[in-house]
């Protein structure tokens, strides 16, 4: 009899960015890519269009986390916003963990830089955690 394998839950993950490791992210997304379709008609072949693969495009990775005293991701964004020559692109990973905290899947992204930072929204009538967000533009993502 086959052993039942339950799917992994999406709330147990961590993010690594060149040495910055955080397990306290609220949300991580944007793990997708698409390939442009180039339609091409060949001479003498008037019935159908040929479809060829074009450029690969990657969506920005979006990260959201509860605001704290930790300013490392914000400082990285400020370096880029201020044109600091020391600002560096970074590689990173989004790691899916099982219920026991063991790594089950990993998506590695390359040459990322912070394209957008969003600060928290405030509401005196709410009872929510203050959330910061960062969008990372990158050049490639690979499931390892």
Automatic annotation (TrEMBL):
Biological source species: Caballeronia cordobensis
Matches recorded under PANTHER family: CONSERVED HYPOTHETICAL PHAGE TAIL PROTEIN
Domain of life: Bacteria
InterPro entries in UniProt: CHP02241 (IPR011747), Phage_T4_Gp19 (IPR010667)
MF terms (GO), sorted A to Z: structural molecule activity
Record field: transmembrane: none
Coiled-coil region(s): none
NCBIfam families for the chain: conserved hypothetical phage tail region protein (TIGR02241)
Name of the featured protein: T4-like virus tail tube protein gp19
